[in-house]
Design brief:
Elements: H1 4-33, H2 38-46, H3 65-99, H4 102-114, E1 119-122, E2 138-142, E3 145-156, E4 163-169, E5 181-187, E6 192-197, E7 208-219, H5 231-267, E8 269-270, E9 273-274, H6 279-307, H7 313-338, H8 349-359, H9 366-380
Parallel strand pairs: 1-4
Antiparallel strand pairs: 2-3, 3-7, 4-5, 6-7, 8-9
Helix pairs in contact: 1-3, 3-4, 3-5, 5-6, 5-7, 5-8, 6-7, 7-8, 7-9
Length: about 375
């Protein structure tokens, strides 16, 4: 019988083959033209990637977060946008798996695992990003339905997906505010409108949209967990997974930048020798390599804590903060090592340079991560 490590290696080897044969040669064109990778997504369904962390009882792969983080890092090393297509979906799935009623799990998780139902999380609003308690989307009870009105923005998988875990106010007057917040499983239907696709600096090819809900009706039995007022708590537990994912994306982008720079520095010559023999370049490569390895270890630590069921907002925050800043710095250093070619759209470097900054913003800004780290540090080490 195969060990956990052997199973993990088989999955990663299969993923590597998929990325090499089905993805790599298409990335440049799809990203440049901002085209949704529909055929690649269908193959991702076949590989079971939409069920990565869904229990095997519900048809998922039942992978550990540690293995999932390695999958995300490898995908992001090839094309970061693809990792977002599974990440947002799996945060939604994790909310149902952790907090859903038995009936919700039995109905939704198998459909999430195959990608038949696919989507993400509807949290951010035009005036509510990091401060989620400030959301204004309201769901009013009307018999056996909720009637939803409001706007969401920066919602991944919302144009080509069909289901959203939607954060709403079921009691806008509640104090503290989080006690009036609930999480609904929202499938597309009348009143659920994709208003527009957002144009982005990087992270292209993936559908990021603004949504408008106008008298959109959701059956009451799609309230996750069947209890009002705990939506924010349900979301925050999923965001720990999301932050580990974004940190793993940082590892992938930082690693891709390092590999591009290492390779280029050995073939580009100045003053009669490869630039990798110049001390200034060696100093940069040494720092880039150290950032990648430190980021990888921080992600492993956070994923292990999540798998063990420990509170891990500090570990996830550290991984997310350090790995994403490493991605930004490595992308810039790789561009400098490439010189003028790094600024050209013919090379991968300029894509990495555009993709990396999003990671410092998404799933909670890096400024917020440092505050979370400090608060937890103090709480865990009382004087």
């Amino acid at each position: 019988m195969a060990t956990h490590l052997e199973e993990e290696q088989l999955i990663l080897d299969s993923l590597d083959r998929f990325l090499e044969t089905e993805v790599k040669q298409h990335v440049h064109q799809l990203e440049h033209d901002d085209i949704y990778p529909a055929e690649i997504v269908e193959k991702m369904k076949e590989l079971g990637l939409f069920g990565c962390i869904i229990d095997t009882d519900y048809g998922g792969l039942g992978l550990s977060t540690s293995t999932y983080a390695k999958i995300v890092a490898r995908i992001s090393e090839t094309w970061m946008s693809l990792s977002g297509i599974i990440n947002s979906h799996l945060i939604m799935a994790a909310a149902v798996q952790r907090h859903g009623t038995p009936e919700q799990k039995a109905y939704y998780l198998p459909k999430f695992a195959t990608g038949e139902l696919r989507g993400g999380i509807g949290l951010t609003e035009p005036d509510a990003g990091t401060d989620l308690q400030a959301i204004r989307t309201v769901a009013k009870r009307d018999g056996d339905h909720y009637v939803v009105n409001g706007t969401k923005t920066w919602i991944t998988n919302s144009m080509y997906g069909n289901t959203i875990a939607l954060l709403v106010k079921t009691d806008p007057a509640a104090q503290p505010r989080h006690k009036g917040m609930s999480l609904l499983i929202a499938e597309k239907g009348p009143g659920f409108k994709v208003a527009r696709k957002l144009e982005k600096l990087g992270y292209r090819g993936i559908d990021t949209c603004e949504l408008v809900f106008e008298d959109y009706r959701v059956p009451v039995d799609r309230l996750i967990g069947g209890v009002e007022g705990v939506g924010l708590k349900q979301v925050l537990s999923g965001l720990e997974l999301g932050r580990i994912n974004v940190a793993a994306r940082g590892v992938g982008v930082a690693s891709a930048a390092l590999k591009e720079a290492t390779s280029y520095s050995q073939v580009r010559k100045t003053f009669g020798k490869p630039i990798c023999e110049h001390q200034a370049i060696q100093l940069m490569l040494g720092e880039m390599a150290t950032r990648v390895e430190a980021s990888r270890l921080l992600v492993e630590s956070a994923a292990r804590a999540y798998d063990e069921g420990r509170r891990c907002d500090m570990e996830a925050g550290m991984a997310k903060y350090f790995a994403t800043e490493s991605a930004v710095t490595n992308a810039m250093d790789a561009m400098r090592i490439h010189g003028g070619y790094g600024y050209s759209k013919e090379y991968n470097i300029e894509r990495l340079y555009r993709d990396a900054p999003l990671l410092t913003i998404g799933e909670g800004t890096n400024e917020l991560q440092r505050i979370i780290i400090a608060k937890q540090l103090i709480e865990r080490n009382p004087a």
